[in-house]
Design goal:
The protein is of the alpha/beta class. The protein has a single domain, classed as Phosphoglycerate mutase-like (Rossmann fold), CATH 3.40.50. 27% of the residues lie in helices and 18% in strands. The protein contains 4 helices and 6 strands, in the order E-H-E-H-E-H-E-H-E-E. Strands 3-2-4-1-5-6 form a 6-stranded mixed β-sheet, sandwiched between helices. Strand 2 (53-58), helix 2 (62-75) and strand 3 (79-81) form a beta-alpha-beta unit. The protein is globular. One of its GO terms (cellular component) is cytoplasm.
Length: 214
């Protein structure tokens, strides 16, 4: 008699990005991993190598696909892309400051801070949660009894975790537990969420300057 069916979806944040100008790059094209980020991706791939991974899926952005590539190679599976894993929209994209004290030097942007609980300057948290949980559920159901790796970005991964744990979605950005190339794992038993685990194969890493929401 077989035991309960255990399926695990690993949400991986991409590694460090080469960003010497400290731009809030968001969904802008052309931002790729730094040499450190490439090493982080390999270390995370080694961490996941012992699992029975059936699929590796990444955001459409380069930095996520670069992080996912060594993971997919380690398991001999093709790298797939899911647009639902993309970085969140952000009105501060392309600037060198985020939604914080620096914005008060730019009166035209004050209106963007009208509701930090939504947030009013970017993609609503509820929309991020909806697309991320939709991706998690679809890939989980496609590979029941195995492991799936989804490579995304800091804010989408963190919002997905808060939604899975039934916490309110608004939060303090400086308290996100989502280090570079970290792994947030949703463990399901017979389709029901059992627990959420978190690991940092590269050790604790501070957010790289200019990578807010990355």
């Amino acid at each position: 008699m077989s035991g309960p069916e255990v399926t695990t979806v690993h949400l991986v944040r991409h590694g460090e990005v080469f960003n010497p100008s400290k731009v809030l790059y968001g969904r802008l094209p052309g931002y790729r991993l730094s040499e450190t980020g490439e090493r982080q991706a390999k270390i995370t791939a080694e961490y996941l190598a012992g699992f029975d991974v059936a699929a590796v899926v990444a955001s459409p952005l380069d930095r996520a696909q670069q992080t996912a590539t060594p993971i997919a190679a380690a398991h001999g599976v093709p790298l797939q892309v899911d647009p639902r894993l993309i970085e969140s929209r952000n009105a501060f994209e392309g600037r060198t400051f985020e939604a914080g004290p620096a914005v008060f030097r730019y009166p035209a942007m004050w209106k963007l801070l009208r509701n930090p609980l939504t947030p009013s300057w970017g993609e609503p948290y509820t929309e991020i949660a909806g697309r991320m949980l939709g991706s998690v559920a679809e890939w989980r159901d496609a590979h029941r009894g195995r492991h799936v790796v989804l490579v995304s970005h800091q804010l989408p991964v963190w919002i997905a975790r808060r939604a899975l744990e039934e916490q309110h979605l608004w939060h303090r950005p400086d308290r996100r537990q989502c280090a570079l190339a970290s792994v947030t794992s949703a463990v399901y038993v017979s389709g029901e969420l059992l627990r959420v685990e978190y690991s940092e194969p590269n050790g604790p890493t501070a957010n790289a300057p200019g990578s807010v929401g990355a």
